[in-house]
Amino acid sequence: MLDGLRVLEIASMAVAPGSEAAAAHATRILADLGADVVKLEPEQGDGARRRPPFVEGVPNVDGSCWWIPLDANKRSATISRGALATFLRGADVVVQGQVMTHYEDVARANPTAVLVTITPYGTTGPLAGAPASDLEITAASGSLWLAGEPGRAPIRSSLPQSPFWSGMYGAMGALVALAARARGGRGQHVDVSGQASMATVHPPAMVHWDVITEAHERLGAALIGRSIVGARFRNLWRCADGYVSFAIQGGPIGRHTGRQLAAWMKEKGALDDVIGAIDWDTFDNRVLTQAQVDRLEASVESFLLTLTKREFFAGVIARNMLGYPASDARDIFADEQLRSREFWQKIRVGEREVTFPGGFALFDGVRPTLRRGPPSLYLPTATLSWAPGGDWRLIAEQCSRATTALHASEASGVSATATLAAPAAAAGALAGLRVVELGWAAAGPFVGKYLANHGAEVIHLESRQALDPFRTTYPPFKGEPAPDRAGMFAFYNDGKRGATLNLRDPRAADLALRLVAKADVVIESFPAGTLARRGLSHEAMRRARPDVVVLSSCNQGQTGPHAQHPGYGSQLTALAGFNELLGEPDRSPVILYGPYIDYIAVGYGVIAILAALERRRRTGEGCLVDLSQYEAGLQFMAPALLELAANGTVPTRAGNRDPQARPHGVYRCADGDDAWVALSVWSADEWSSFREAVAHPEWSRDDPRLDALVEGWTRERTRDEVTATLRRAGLRVQPVLTIPELREDEQLRHRAFWRSVPHPVLESITVMAPPFILSDTPAVLERAGPTLGQDNGYVFRELLGLDESEYRALEAEGVFA
Fold it and tell me: Which residues have a Cβ under 8 Å from the Cβ of 292 and sit 6 or more positions away?
């Protein structure tokens, strides 16, 4: 997809999992798509090489289970920092996980290069330059506040997640900037914030706060946001040999699930008067009181305790019900759907080959593969045809001379950007791109949202006959529930046009294909085969427009035994193993707020579309992208899966502990029993600074009471006092932000991350900008999601050319219903 693209990654010795690992993940995505990625490392190697666990338990700079997934498919070289300028001249994209070079320097060496800088908070604003690891980034994003048990400390995943999020958005930002370059010929700076990247994973919490001032918080195993009367629904349940993910749901598929559950219980002789008395044809979970929910869930709990994870999984598949097991790594490797889609591949680790996750999607039926394993620190591999002189080590002297000359020109007063063309007019990076979107809820429409934010015309097609759950089933609503009063739909679809088509009518399919013929991209997110049954098969779309890029994003992909199984993101998240890694040791796992895995699939969906368009610019070819949301989510699980494959160890939840840092935790402060601060210490030098800052030189990192001692100190101070004290010492610390605090956060305000836009019924709603800022073509957010059928006239009369009489006749016959 990205053959011929040249990417330079600049690494450092940083050991804390944060923005450095994010840069590595960004370039790994680009490498998997065909880019030639060279990683510039210090002589001692990238700091991620030293993060445990290690293959076979032996520390080895080439054997970290954390580092291997980040750096597979790359080459590496060790050079002096002064040699950088010459290498910049041959690069299309440069990625860094801390500020090691500036865009002015990159542009002076190569005006067409894109520089991606990933930092914890962004390169500007009140927190620019503040240090943070995964723990503090998660605390700053609101994600930590939403994970854990009520009354106990907020919990982060035992497998750090923020590097994957900010790395994914770094790759996305690079591709958006390359699309802008294809039009204007100039590179630009992509400024990625780790805080903002992690804040993209819980939109429902922000929508509830914005629309009805309902502040969401961590609820252990329970879901919030499904009720209009404040009830909570359990989503993780103990079963005979572990945990499963299941919830009492409304809407068509929720009611079907309820009917099937009752029939299943009856088969097993377990149906009681509570479940047996429900009329599933009229069931509406949104209006149940908490007492009613508790009574229903007590009956469900008794039944689920009789089933193993395997039995539950087989049962929901056979009955086409919602629900999945809460998998651990062993369950994932045994999954028949992944085997049938040939998801797994082999990677060489030392003298062994081990099983490893495959690429995140199929492109025209082909999955990107590993072309090489991760580069050994002891065997330099970078010999570049696009840089002078061959091996990087051999041209260091030449590069140093070039750098010296560059500095001399600076001293003479030559402007760093004097020879660069002026930035293009502020058109969006994707201006001129037309997208037709057929999908609902989060996973499909959020892909279109990011394209619209960068200038694409996105036309969201929906039907009044089968309304989007975000218009009907999911609160919050402003006033009485109604399709155009739904906050979720308005948030997830900002910047789009909206039209209605009743695809049960064959004439509607013809109109949709006429629209596809005028589009560059089609996004669809229904279960496999749904659109084909309505006359909108992939083949039909390609006949309408041979070079169209089609993204089909669904639960488990377009093929395989589970391809047509319906599912929600919160439960698919459990199937992908995330819940097994979230919680305290020896306690129940807890949920990741919302449809966590959906947003991973969104990011990879945007990346897939942009990569396919990049290929189309070179070859004129369209592309069919088969994206399984399950497989996309497993990219963020790769280190845990490698740990099992290489060592036979089953990763599990470990609270807020970390194998490298101590202290590393979340501690109460004097502001109240639910006021917390996250902090971590990663080295002996940092430990010395920490003891001096807290005025306790007698403390020991080996003391088993250390967490209690730290919390004793924080409980005597407010969050702001703790934060100010430790930041003055250059240490990592961050208050755990609540959702209302996240909305008012000064750093996010500086980046214009939350923006209020008009809506014809809701009046206004807060929407979310992309977590990266493009220096020349920034995102534009001007309007909320469309009301139902808002742009029918534009789409069908102006674009498709229907005359007045034809349009009115079709309207009267229900084609636009």
Answer: 231
CA atoms of 428 and 780, how far apart (whole Å): 7
Closest by alpha carbon to 12, among 23, 25, 3? 23
User: What are the C-alpha distances in Å from 315 to residues 319, 564, 608, 628, 635?
Assistant: 6, 15, 33, 22, 27
Alpha-carbon distance of 733 to 32, in angstroms, equals 34
Rounded to whole angstroms, the Cα distance separating 388 from 377 reads: 22
pLDDT given for residue 351 in this prediction: 81
CA-CA distance, 223 to 214, in Å (whole number)? 14
- The pLDDT value recorded for residue 80 is 64
Residue 288: exposure state from Cβ atoms within 10 A (0-12, 13-18, ≥19): buried
Say if residues 24 and 11 touch (Cβ distance below 8 Å).
yes
Amino acid at the residue 280: W
What is the model's pLDDT at position 380? 58
DSSP 35-55: -EEEEEE-TT--GGGGPSPBG
Q: How confident is the model at residue 412 (pLDDT cuts 50, 70, 90)?
A: very low
Which pLDDT tens digit goes with each residue over 37-58?
A: 999 988 888 999 999 999 989 9
The total number of residues shown for the chain amounts to: 817
Q: Please state the three-class secondary structure of 156-187 as a single string.
A: CCCCCCHHHHHHHHHHHHHHHHHHHHHHHCCC
Number of helices (H) and strands (E), helices first, in the chain?
A: 31, 28
Check whether 383 has a pLDDT greater than 60.
no
How far, in Å, CA of 305 to CA of 254, rounded?
A: 21
Beta bridge partners of 463: 466
Q: Is 257 helix (H, G, I), strand (E, B) or coil?
A: helix
Q: How confident is the model at residue 87 (pLDDT cuts 50, 70, 90)?
A: confident
Handedness of CA 166, 169, 170, 173 (dihedral sign): negative
Helix (H) / strand (E) containing 251: helix 251-267
- Roughly what angle, to the nearest 10 degrees, separates helices 309-319 and 251-267? 120
CA distance 523 to 538: 11
Sign of the torsion formed by the C-alpha atoms of 473, 476, 482 and 484? negative
According to DSSP, the β-strands at 549-554 and 521-524 are parallel
What are the start-end ranges of the E strands in 527-683? 549-554, 623-628, 664-669, 672-680
Record the tokens describing residue 223, joined without a space.
Answer: 């879901």
SS3 label, residue 85: helix
Band the pLDDT of 254: cuts 50, 70, 90.
very high
Query: What is the dihedral sign for C-alpha 50, 53, 58, 61?
Result: negative
More confident residue, 14 or 516: 516
Short-list 757, 741, 442, CA closest to 600? 442
Q: Evaluate whether 554 touches 526 at the Cβ level (below 8 Å).
A: yes
The mean per-residue pLDDT over the stretch 358-364 comes to 97
Q: Which residues of 305-335 are buried (b: 16+ CB within 10 A; e: fewer)?
A: eebebebbbebbbebebbbbbbbbbebbeeb
Task: Give 481-506 as a 3 state SS string.
Answer: CCHHHEHHHHHHCCCCEEEECCCCCH
- Is the peptide bond prior to 53 cis by the omega test (within 30 degrees of 0)? yes
Specify whether the CB–CB gap between 138 and 198 falls below 8 A. Answer: yes
User: DSSP strand E in 74-200: where?
Assistant: 75-78, 93-96, 114-119, 189-193
The total of other beta-carbon atoms located within 10 Å of residue 102's CB is 15
State the Cα–Cα distance between residues 510 and 519, nearest whole angstrom.
14
Average pLDDT across the chain, whole number: 92
Q: Tokens at residue 435, please?
A: 């997208």
Which three-class secondary structure state does DSSP give residue 362?
strand
Facing residues of 434 across strands? Answer: 457
